[in-house]
């Protein structure tokens, strides 16, 4: 597999090896030793899958405490996927990385613990699948505004995406109480 660095250290794009034959193709989507060597360390304790329609935006989400590292990919369709560094004291605080992930390119994004994560569906529909290093703790779940001007994500959308109620009433990063954000540890 190929491991591509991004503008934020620790956020990685993975291009799995695809083994094609006349039946179709096969790929390993996670393998403990190889992914750990690439810097993607579990243990992973939960797998999630979500279906969304075109124009749906989920995010920006994080948990603190109980920070989740997320290894994400798209099974069907296409999304614009974003990781934002919201670790207090990080030299990259507020910086974002955005990548297109699709069921055609099979790419994965590694969103390390301490990052906020979100995605916009750019195809008619999308099935999104991911592994998490922590269990879901709804009481520690936090939503940050998708259009926070301080973060300035360049979403590939004209107009307004469709949001959940929770995400529609999300906080700007500057209004999040400091104790609701993780701390950067070099
Ligand atoms: C995230 C999650 C939700 N749920 C339930 C709660 C709720 O009834 C329903 C939908 O929850 P949400 O609206 O939070 O789902 P969603 O907006 O898809 O939340 C996800 O967004 C992306 C961007 C992430 O990064 C994920 O970590 C997660 O926060 O599913 C679980 O049972 N387990 C889970 O792990």
From TrEMBL:
The record marks 136 as: Participates in a stacking interaction with the thymidine ring of dTDP-4-oxo-6-deoxyglucose. One of its GO terms (molecular function) is dTDP-4-dehydrorhamnose 3,5-epimerase activity. Keywords: Isomerase. It catalyses: dTDP-4-dehydro-6-deoxy-alpha-D-glucose = dTDP-4-dehydro-beta-L-rhamnose. It comes from the Bacteria. Its EC number is 5.1.3.13. Homodimer. Belongs to the dTDP-4-dehydrorhamnose 3,5-epimerase family. This is dTDP-4-dehydrorhamnose 3,5-epimerase. It comes from Thiolapillus brandeum.
